Model the fold of this input.
Amino acid sequence: MVSSRLASLAFLISVTVVNAVSNGHCTETILPLSIIANNTEIKLSAPRSQMEVSDLVTRISSLTSNLTSEIVGGPRVNNATYRIWTQLCVPTKPDASKTVELAVHGAGFDHSYWNFGGDGSKYNYVEAVLKAGHSILIYDRLGTGQSDKPDGITEVQSPTEIEIAAQLVKYLRGSPKGNQFKRVIGIGHSFGSATLLGLVSKYGDVLDATILTGFAVAGGINYISYPAIGWTIASVQNPKRFGALPSSYVVSEGVSNSQHFFFHYGGYETAILNAAEAMKSTATLGELFVQLGAPALSYTKPVFVVTGDKDFAVCTGNCYQKFNGVNIVEATKQVFPAVAADKFSTWIPATTGHATNLHLSAPETYGKIQEWIGKL
Ligand SMILES: *[C@@H]1O[C@H](CO)[C@@H](O)[C@H](O)[C@H]1NC(C)=O
Ligand SMILES: *[C@@H]1O[C@H](CO)[C@@H](O)[C@H](O)[C@H]1NC(C)=O
Ligand SMILES: *[C@@H]1O[C@H](CO)[C@@H](O)[C@H](O)[C@H]1NC(C)=O
Done:
């Protein structure tokens, strides 16, 4: 279970909206979450210009890069309370297992990655979940959407995001709004998948099952994708949307960069690429330049990895490349050594890039995910 050393989960401070949606209803709440995280001392100061950010990207994507070892210092405890925006959606007809999914979005998006397109959209994962009789909690990760946006180097880092996810699991196991859930399943996308790996790596079987989308760990992190997305200081890229953010917050440079990183040409609708660009969100230098990938040695529950065949960000565009005799997606088993072989599965949607939910294959992918959960 989540360590009792963690500060106890705080109370609900505001319910903003209750919405009826197809097959259920959703409640938005801002939760104050107290965490203690082992962040890393990062030897960088807030960039004074875009040239400094571009230089960091050049250095980390160099084939002989030493940047990580140059900027990583010792541990640095982050003891803080953050306001995190959440939305809990509960189905009209819950399944017998009273399942709730905890959805963790990736870098470049906020919670709306999971209900993309809104009511009736085939890209809306929340609707697929409610239709299957499951509840789902979506939230804005620290630094995005309507959640707090503290320092992007010292505070918004993976260890802090992992502790926030741990607090949300605790929240879901504590009958939020009178809903008693019997199983909590994590689903992540990209950096959100890495966050869930970090969660079960630290806390073991806190999730009853884990679904990692847009994710593969073979061969380490693909920093070649960083120049592709063209990380740009967010307040410079779009002063209207991001003008208030410190220079440690970055965003993709433009629509062609978003395509390069998240999409596979021929596998998506142009309107969806443009919509994703219009609602894009930020990442922080603290998240991007110090990443974790420790194996989940004590996690034994089922794992499902769902990554597009043409994912550029994690497979350099071809997830069927072999790694130790298996494809890159299957090779993710290496970070789950305690998961039995028959509890580890993969699905590789065809003609699909990194943003799995935003491709034409999304409805089929959602069907595969709900089918996998149904068989647990
Ligand atoms: C932080 O790291 C130290 C040393 O590795 C460990 O003893 C401690 O439990 C960690 N604290 C948290 C909150 O993870
Ligand atoms: C990286 O570090 C190693 C060992 O410290 C050194 O030999 C090498 O020249 C460095 N490479 C670069 C690109 O700085
Ligand atoms: C975290 O901060 C709180 C409030 O300032 C303090 O009471 C507590 O001792 C701190 N915990 C650690 C481990 O630093």
Notes: The two ends are 21 Å apart (CA to CA). Confidence is low (pLDDT under 50) at residues 1-13.
